[in-house]
Amino acid sequence: MKIPNVLQQKLNLRIETNALRKLPIPTNGIDFSSNDYLGFAKNENVFDATHQYLVENNIKINGATGSRLISGNHNLYSVTENYIAKFHQSEAALIFNSGYDANVGFFSAVPQRNDIILFDELCHASIRDGIQMSHAKSYKFQHNDYEDLEALLSKFQTSNSELVEGQLPTPNSQLPTIYIVTESVFSMDGDAPNMETLVQLSEKFNALLVVDEAHALGVFGEKGEGLMQSQNLQDKVFARIMTFGKGLGCHGAAILGSASLKEYLVNFARSFIYTTGLSPHSVATILVAYQNVNQSTELQKLKENINFFNQQKQLLGIKPLFVYSKSAIHSAIIPGNEKVKHIAAQLQEKGFEVKAILSPTVPEGQERLRFCLHSYNSTEEISAVINCLYSLL
User: At what angle do helices 259-268 and 99-109 cross, to 10 degrees?
Assistant: First the structure.
């Protein structure tokens, strides 16, 4: 049966603009594209330790069997959530099935009608989707532009004051809550905001700061705790979203915050309530991954590779091509879908697995090659891919 014409027309437009997405065929190229920053997804020690944990604890169950609110809340959840909360110096942690589920669940449930959400314009699609499902009013601020953010904060603080002054208080009246939303490492640019400035603004305007740390977990901090903890700002944040599919190499995510926030999410986050929980094996993998990142030597190797990559960009004079980054993500801006796809294809022919990021995933004119660095990349591989890019340019 054919799909409706309007759907086919949308597909045809993608083809015409050279922006049609297709599932890639796995290759044996040198990995500069995956989010497996520490190599945990392929780590045999993590795999074996997970299996051993399940055997030692006599956990021989393949699935969760239902929602966590019905039959799926096996004991391993509380063990793992307690470990995560302690690791991140948070009062509580709540595991979701994915980073997407965590963001959609949080933003669709927590901000209330007439609340204000101020989000960085480059926030991930999962954050934006959750905001669209919310009844709160939302406004984007220019990327990492604190003057633009402060202007919005001033505007809405003034509006709130006028509202209160112009109305008689009622027993149930409540000032709207303002949420500031950002990421500690942006997934397409690899750059990071000035977290101290954001904390100061949130305190100045009595706003709640929410930070997605998906691409910072396993990358920043002495033990891979993330950017907020590395700057000792964890107590200044209302909620942190930790996604495990990047630095920890497994599946799932956790929202960190107060015990009251956890209780609220259990009661109102629809992406948590109305889905089958993760299997015991998945939760055990999360626990073991956290235990390994806590004592991993891979983090230091990753940091050395990030420094080396930045040095090579500088030596070859192509640093201006890249978005400034100290993370594991480095994006070279090469405008035009056709041009960036052509260069990516040539790099792949040379054996380097580098992906082109096309519009509309990124704005038109901001198409880029996205290099992801890992602990297992050698300096020879990094030098070779940078020199290959240089020659192609």
Answer: 90
